[in-house]
Amino acid sequence: MKELKILYLYPDMLELYGDYGNIQVLKYRMEKRNITCKIDQYSIGDAAPDFSSYDIVFAGGGADNEQSILAEDLVKYKENIKQAIQNGVFFLLICGAYQLFGKYYKGVEGNIIPGLEIFPYYTEAILDRKKRCIGNIVLEVELENNKPTKVIGFENHGGQTFNSLSHFGKVLYGNGNSFGNSEEGFFIGNVIATYLHGPLLSKNPEVSDYIIKYCLERKYGEKVELEVLDDTFELKCREQMLKRLIK
Ligand code: GLN
């Protein structure tokens, strides 16, 4: 039986708006297809993980305070994480975690939370605490060449991210990387870093299957056609949301 291993980073600190749902969705969609899903968790104080021994690394969103506490721990793994990304391990990073993989996060008081500096972007909090990018968001995303799809989520961030260079999606509704921006997130084949909570994968089965397919093909070295699942409810929800927001 095929198996994929997920590493869930800082579950006790990064879990805003149901981000853990992303892991539940991946597990559900794997098990429906008879693929075993193993989940390990890592929190501060645990034994150092070897990131390259996983197929998927996941980290969710968190408030500035949590981010500043765990940044110090995370940077210890910079080289190991960099290596895993180069090896093709899939990274799904939501909101606070998205910010932490960039150059830095500058908080409201001007304090700098160091990032892993693996990706080129940086984030600066908007100085007015009451002003945040909050609400539903819809993107147009090209997961595979010439196959655009709509990705739906919910954003809530004061941080404004600049210099993404390789964005995840074009914003059709909502803000994205910064107020009124037309671009959202950061995307390279094996990394999706995004502000979309929701959780992202429950609202977007296509994104889940992109990740599962990518990981199976990488691990087993063969072309994969995933069994089609019954997504009637998911599709109905999507239809409703899209009608409400962009049609
Ligand atoms: N602290 C970050 C911000 O407000 C991230 C928030 C989040 O993860 N939702 O920009």
Could you explain how this protein is built, in words?
The protein has 247 residues and is of the alpha/beta class. It has a single domain (3-245), classed as Class I glutamine amidotransferase (GATase) domain (Rossmann fold). It has 7 helices and 14 strands. It has helices at residues 21-31, 64-74, 78-87, 96-100, 200-203, 205-220, 232-245; strands at residues 3-9, 36-42, 56-59, 90-94, 104-106, 112-114, 122-125, 133-144, 147-157, 159-162, 169-173, 183-184, 186-188, 191-194. Helix 1 packs across helix 6 (205-220). The site of glutamine has 12 residues, from helix 2 and strand 9.
Describe the structure concisely for a colleague.
The chain is of the alpha/beta class. Helices cover 29% and strands 30% of the residues. α1 crosses α6 (205-220).
Which helices and strands appear, and what pairs or packs with what?
Elements: E1 3-9, H1 21-31, E2 36-42, E3 56-59, H2 64-74, H3 78-87, E4 90-94, H4 96-100, E5 104-106, E6 112-114, E7 122-125, E8 133-144, E9 147-157, E10 159-162, E11 169-173, E12 183-184, E13 186-188, E14 191-194, H5 200-203, H6 205-220, H7 232-245
Parallel strand pairs: 1-2, 1-3, 3-4, 4-14, 5-7
Antiparallel strand pairs: 5-6, 7-10, 8-9, 8-11, 11-12, 13-14
Helix pairs in contact: 1-6
Glutamine binds at residues 16, 61-64, 67, 95-96, 156-159.
The helix tally amounts to 7
Question: Could you name the CATH homologous superfamily?
Answer: Class I glutamine amidotransferase (GATase) domain
Going by helix content, strand content and strand pairing, the class is alpha/beta
Number of β-strand runs: 14
Into how many domains do the coordinates divide? Answer: 1
Bound ligands, each once: glutamine
Question: Which topology does CATH recognise?
Answer: Rossmann fold
Overall CATH class: Alpha Beta
For the sheet with most strands, the description reads:
6 strands, mixed
* Corresponding CATH architecture: 3-Layer(aba) Sandwich
- N to C succession of SSEs: EHEEHHEHEEEEEEEEEEHHH
Mean pLDDT: 97
Strand order of the largest sheet: 2-1-3-4-14-13
Q: Distance between the terminal alpha carbons, to the nearest Å?
A: 43 Å
Q: What is the gyration radius calculated from CA atoms?
A: 17 Å
Spatial shape:
globular
Poorly predicted tracts of residues: none
Helicity range: 25-40%
Beta-strand residue fraction: 25-35%
